[in-house]
Amino acid sequence: MTEPFKHRLVQAARILLGRPVSRVAQREIPALTDREIAEAHQFFPLEKFFIFGHARAGTTVFVRLVRLHPEVHCSYQAHFFTRPPLLESLVAEKEVGDWLKRESNRWNRGRDLSPVILRAAADMILEREARRENKRIVGDKSPNNLLDGRAVQLMHKIYPDARLIYILRDGRDTILSHRIQAFVEFPERLSQEDQRICRDFSQDPEPFRRGERSVFSEAGIQHAAEGWVRNVTQTHSLGMDLYGERYLVSRYEDLLVRPWQEMTRLWKFLNASPPPAELENAVDDEMYRNPDADWQQEKAREIAVSIKKGKQGSWQEMFTARDRKIFLQVAQDTLANWGYDSL
Q1: In the 3-class helix/strand/coil scheme, how is 158-210 assigned residue by residue?
Q2: CA distance 314 to 311
Q3: pLDDT, tens digit, for every residue of 266-320?
């Protein structure tokens, strides 16, 4: 059986089973050259940045805050590099690659045009919004916990000249918030055991809020802890290696304690002009808003009201003794490395 036929057979089976179709690249997409990057700047000159982080790490509030600056625009979840089918899917097919690097194609200068097309597509999407807002710096926020470090590698092939911000939050609060989000927004994706936990939680949340019952199954918290560690470890390691001074980590907890200082640091990292002093009041006002929490209460109030969104240390109330033990077994070193206590 040939590989193309096998691929199509697998895709057809996934469709019949009601599963999402995979569009993973069938070939290796080359990285942009320095010359191609310089050419991209001629057509799309705005400075670019990307915000990564584990889902529910606080990336959304950073978006709302960072775009308060008169020079910076940021929006949500293009998922160019962080969730399949990915930007690469535009040129993923082998036949497309053959066309873009064909010797008779005199437009390609003897090289695969794929990375040029990918960069142009992403640049256009980003800059058309930023120019409408009259901003000179533009970025996208997309949680990268589905691909972890691979997302950094994919980004670097197309945007080695961009800046990468990684939002970090205590893993215990992160996975707890992610769990509640699943209860509210994606109950149909839960296993039968998790659906039972979700029903029990919505009917009587108090034992869960006191840490007497867990919102996680034993396997569930193990998996969630491993995912948080993997996301932090891989993203930070590759961010440092590939981006160096163009990479920055911002802890969600630091934002809660000193929002103006943290945002000033981020804007400086993005090469934005010093923010006007009156912007500090706008930052403080935005910190008190939580539109995501409001939306969740509208969708599933009986669940959403049981935990305060964005609060630091909610895990201390809701983790059971078993939850604490399992999480520490998996993540104790990572917690310590980033200054989170191991209570």
Answers
A1: HCCCCEEEEEECCHHHHHHHHHHHHHHHCHHHCCHHHHHHHHHHHHCCHHHHC
A2: 6
A3: 999 999 999 999 999 999 999 988 766 554 445 445 554 556 656 788 999 999 9
Rg (CA), the chain: 22
Mean pLDDT of 98-107: 91
Q: What is the pLDDT of residue 121?
A: 98
Structural fold of domain 19-337: Rossmann fold (3.40.50)
C-alpha closest to that of 338 among 225, 249, 258, 206: 249
Structure tokens at 181: 């989000």
CA distances from 183 to 147, 196, 223 (A): 22, 11, 17
By the 8 A CB rule, do 152 and 235 touch? yes
- Tell me the C-alpha distance between 197 and 203, whole Å: 10
Tell me 32's DSSP state: P
Nearest to 236 by CA among 251, 225, 222, 223: 251
Alpha carbon distance 178, 245 (integer Å): 30
- Helices 149-158 and 218-243, packing angle to 10 deg: 30
Which tokens go with 328?
A: 């520490």
d(CA 237, CA 232): 8
- Per-domain residue ranges of the chain: 19-337
Q: Find the Cα–Cα–Cα–Cα dihedral 93, 98, 99, 100, rounded to 10°.
A: 90
pLDDT in tens, 228-241: 999 999 999 999 99
For residues 224 and 181, the answer to whether their CB atoms sit within 8 Å is no
pTM of the model: 0.88
- Whether the Cβ atoms of residue 46 and residue 127 lie closer than 8 Å to each other: yes
CA atoms within 13 A on the CB side of 163: 20
Q: What is the pLDDT of residues 13-71, one digit of tens each?
A: 443 444 444 444 478 999 999 999 999 999 999 999 999 999 999 999 999 999 999 99
